[in-house]
């Protein structure tokens, strides 16, 4: 029996526009008093007329183009009819027949994931369930109702939970590069619903599919991965026990219980015909000219994959360093600010590697330990340049470089000055080192005997020399001098 997972993802992203999708209410809904950002439009009162937010429409197209999609020059909004307490109108304004952008793709782990579409819609309000004096209550906050939401729908080309996670990470990176949303899964500004089933090729040559399940309410990136793996296993076990395969009617919606780490049946899923989509009569068709689309395209910055390619070709970074720096737009900006300040083109690759090591090592460690955000750390390119020159000239060792640059993040003092003030400048003066080396040889006759039998044991004497110089001797020079004296 051969089993292949078939996974598609619907990703919802809240846009960081000032106002909501169809009214002028503020789109901010975190830490805002309930039901203060509302008006007749987003509450769906009779006679209220929606007016589309042009920035949101442009951002949706911008995101679509960044995902390799083709824009539709003409598109329109439709009503998706369903009743839900936190959707006051009884329908959601969305796009169905003509979304803003279609037919994109992302390459994840070397495999192409097709993107069916990205369309514009509005978010719902939030239900808050609580118990007061033994009574179960549901309160509704409509502040989020009408906030611009982009839905990105992939084709079912994803074949593992890990690939699904990497796909989400890539979308998150691109959104953050575009600056159109914080795309924070834990906060709910990016949400993901995987649709999952299995293709099973049985030993007797038959190919069957297990029933489709859509998983709701997964609220973390790791959760998505665990939920998909759970559901893949559950479907395989169910198939082994019942032999049930996919039919037209048996698509289900399953919830995710993050405490028990398992999915549970919520309801049989509606088909799109149940929603009775029809064009919104109060909003005219939305037309873009090719010139407008070209202008949106031109406003897209260098994207993560392009950055990685450039870091590798221009700066000679290895794949891991390039990927890690480019993964976070703020990290990449910090790095480039330093690199762009360095003018000696003959040594730029060495400087790029040196700086990458420090910001992926010392800076990342410092940020983790202090729980600071990189945007709050002052960026001093000249510190890195001075330090690079000192290390290249053998005045400062790589270990000391890491130590003093970390201290410079706290004090904003040039790391080379810190090294000088602490006596951490490396001694490369042969005469000085030879003096110490002679003492070390005199004081360690046993180690000298060992060395004569086994030259590999010189490490001990180098260690003693470094100790005697309080770490300031250049180890390469120290080794050469010891070898010379021992001969
Ligand atoms: Zn409103």
Give the arrangement of secondary structure elements.
Blueprint: E1 2-14, H1 54-66, E2 70-71, E3 74-75, E4 78-81, E5 91-94, E6 101-108, E7 111-122, E8 126-132, E9 135-141, E10 148-154, H2 161-178, E11 190-201, E12 207-209, E13 213-216, H3 221-242, E14 252-257, E15 262-268, E16 278-279, E17 286-287, H4 290-298, H5 304-315, H6 319-326, H7 329-340, H8 348-370, H9 381-392, H10 398-411, H11 415-421, H12 430-443, H13 445-453, H14 458-468, H15 475-486
Bound molecules: zinc ion.
Residues 20, 23, 25, 38-39, 41-42, 146 line the site of zinc ion.
Question: In short, what is this structure?
Answer:
With 487 residues, this protein is of the alpha+beta class.
Walk me through the structure.
With 487 residues, this protein is α+β, with helices and mostly antiparallel strands. It contains 15 helices and 17 strands. The mean pLDDT is 92. The site of zinc ion has 8 residues, from loops.
- Rg over CA atoms, rounded to whole Å, is 30 Å
**Percent of residues in β-strands:** 15-25%
Poorly predicted residue ranges: none
Percent of residues in helices comes to 40-55%
Distance between the termini: 70 Å
- Biggest sheet record: 10 strands, mixed
Which terms would index this structure?
3-stranded antiparallel β-sheet; 21% strand; alpha+beta; 487 residues; binds zinc ion
